Amino acid sequence: PGVDQAPEIRQVLVPTHEVVEIRKGKRVTVTKRLYPGYVLVEMLLNERTQHVINNIQGVIKFVGQGKAPQPLREDEINKILGVEEEKEDEPQEEIPFHIDQVVEVIQGPFTDFSGTVQEVYPDKGKVKVEVSLFGRPTAVELDYTDLQGF
Question: What is the DSSP letter of 40?
């Protein structure tokens, strides 16, 4: 019997959120799994439902100790569902750079300059980079799309 034939299985959920990534110099919104490799299942736990889930191709095991599945606590469920709802409102900017990373400027007035990331501003989509201008370190604020990491 499949999941559709087991009324004790009430809900199946793969929590996701949207992030903004930089691909080929453009911002792209992509959907990512919050917990890769995990599927949340609301069900009445008995031998039959456990057997149905365990026999789905790709299922390795239930989370828990030994053979007994470990149910999530109410606060854990609310946190997961809350995170999922919050993420739906506005895609979060994925930060492609980190502090002290060496980057190259690939477009704009500082093209072909190399520098070191000093600060990251995910809310603005910008990075503060220290470049060498006339032999002096100078901090400039640049867009994510203007940079390429090494």
Answer: E
Structural domains of the chain in order of their starting residue, each with its CATH number? 3-93 (no CATH), 102-149 (2.30.30.30)
pLDDT for the residue 91: 60
pLDDT in tens, 90-128: 666 677 889 999 999 998 889 999 999 999 988 788 899
Residue 145, phi then psi, degrees to nearest 5: -70, -15
Distances, alpha carbon 101 to alpha carbons 27, 140, 141, in Å: 20, 15, 15
Measured distance CA(11)–CA(4) in Å, rounded = 11
Query: Do residues 41 and 53 make contact, with C-beta atoms less than 8 angstroms apart?
Result: yes
